[in-house]
Amino acid sequence: MQNTMLCPCQSGQTYAVCCEPFHLGNTDAPTPETLMRSRYSAFVFANVDYIEKTMQGPAAKSFDKTDCLQFATSMTWQGLTVLSTQTLSAIRGLVEFHVRFTTADGIPQCIHERSVFQKINGKWYYVDRVQPLKTLV
Ligand SMILES: [Zn+2]
């Protein structure tokens, strides 16, 4: 991994100063948005361990590691756009985003989702999503 590689989360920063410290466990994502970005980057790298350990609650309950790995590796990841972030309380936040990818059949997909994040014992976790929004193609 080169230090000058741009982060897959498209923050405009290098991976080394953006999502890598979270993936390595050197530090914890300080906000719902940084956690969301690091989870997207983890999908790009098929780092399912990171995806798994940054979930709690309903999201964690419905998580299947094998399915996740299959999904992460069969898609070609095209990019992430964070549309908005919303603070619900000191320990709950929302991030609305688009994720774009191409399926193994070459079909472009865009997921539009609002994720719920919760701070548990001082760390942010992805816990749920709010109403599935329309999938844009
Ligand atoms: Zn990043």
Describe this structure in words.
The protein has a single domain (20-130), classed as Nuclear Transport Factor 2, Chain: A (Roll). 23% of the residues are buried. The chain has 137 residues and is an alpha+beta fold. The chain has a four-stranded antiparallel β-sheet with strand order 1-2-3-4. The chain is built from five helices and four strands, in the order αααααββββ. The N and C termini lie far apart (32 Å). The site of zinc ion (ZN) has 7 residues, from α2. Zinc ion (ZN) binds next to α2.
What's the short version?
The protein has 137 residues and is of the alpha+beta class. The protein has five helices and four strands; from the N terminus they run αααααββββ.
Please give the structural blueprint.
Elements: H1 20-23, H2 32-44, H3 48-53, H4 57-61, H5 65-74, E1 76-89, E2 92-102, E3 108-120, E4 123-130
Antiparallel strand pairs: 1-2, 2-3, 3-4
The structure holds zinc ion.
Element-level helix/strand string: HHHHHEEEE
Number of domains: 1
List ligands, each type once.
zinc ion
- CATH class annotation: Alpha Beta
Question: What is the number of beta strands?
Answer: 4
How many helices? The count is: 5
- Given helix and strand content, the structural type is alpha+beta
Strand order of the largest sheet: 1-2-3-4
Q: Would you identify the CATH architecture?
A: Roll
What is the percent of helical residues?
A: 25-40%
Name the descriptors:
single chain; 137 residues; alpha+beta; Nuclear Transport Factor 2, Chain: A; four-stranded antiparallel sheet; 5 helices; 4 strands; 28% helix; 34% strand; globular; binds zinc ion
